[in-house]
Every structure is written in structure tokens, then in C-alpha cells.
TrEMBL record:
Pfam families: Ribosomal_S24e
GO CC annotations on file: ribonucleoprotein complex; ribosome
Protein name as catalogued: Small ribosomal subunit protein eS24
Gene that this sequence comes from: rps24e
GO biological process per UniProt: translation
Family: Belongs to the eukaryotic ribosomal protein eS24 family.
Length: 104
């Protein structure tokens, strides 16, 4: 992300579903909306997460004309927990599940 700043708006631990729920705000002047992969890498670096933790970007909302994006993120301690609690379409968007080919 070129010339961008990331600010954590809220962070909480959900003990019922063992995960961290984070809302971040990204200011990206001079560039487009950051990709999911860019957001994951930035969050992983800022929070100093181990490589075993799985970062899932749930939603990215960009304000029109403001160059400000809000991202809703879940952090799990393992990929199996992420697969158990996240819907398949979210896992596909984050590259954790490969799309199956239809035979016919």
C-alpha cells in the first residue's frame, strides 16, 4: 500500500468463538483500495502475529471520494478454526479454499 496509514478502530476477543475481531481504518492517498492480501500483510506486521495465525478479511468498505477504507478482520489461531467458523464464500475470497471444477 503506497502512502497509506492503518489505524486500529476496535479490537476485541470473542471467547465463544476463539478469535480476535478487529476493525481497522486505512487511509490510502494516491492509490486505489488496498487488496485483501495487502491488508492481511499489513495487519500481520503491525500486530506481530505468528505465521500459524490465520487472518481473514471479512469486509472492505471504501468511502466514495475520501480515500478511506474500513476493513473488518477476524484472526484465528489455526486454519482449522477459521474453516469451522467462516462461511465458504469468505474463505474463497481470502484464498483459504480452492474453487472446485464442475465435471460434465
Amino acid at each position: 500500500m503506497s502512502q497509506s496509514t492503518l489505524k486500529i478502530i476496535s479490537e476485541r476477543v470473542n471467547r465463544m468463538v476463539p478469535r480476535r475481531e478487529i476493525i481497522v481504518e486505512i487511509e490510502h492517498w494516491g492509490g486505489g483500495t488496498p487488496t485483501r492480501q495487502q491488508i492481511v500483510e499489513t495487519v500481520r506486521n503491525i500486530l506481530n502475529l505468528p505465521s500459524s495465525d490465520v487472518v481473514v478479511v471479512r469486509k472492505i468498505l471504501t468511502s466514495y471520494g475520501a480515500c478511506v477504507t474500513r476493513a473488518y478482520i477476524h484472526v484465528y489461531d489455526s486454519e482449522s478454526r477459521a474453516r469451522a467458523f467462516e462461511p465458504k464464500y469468505i474463505l474463497k475470497r481470502n484464498g483459504l479454499v480452492q474453487e472446485q471444477q464442475q465435471q460434465g
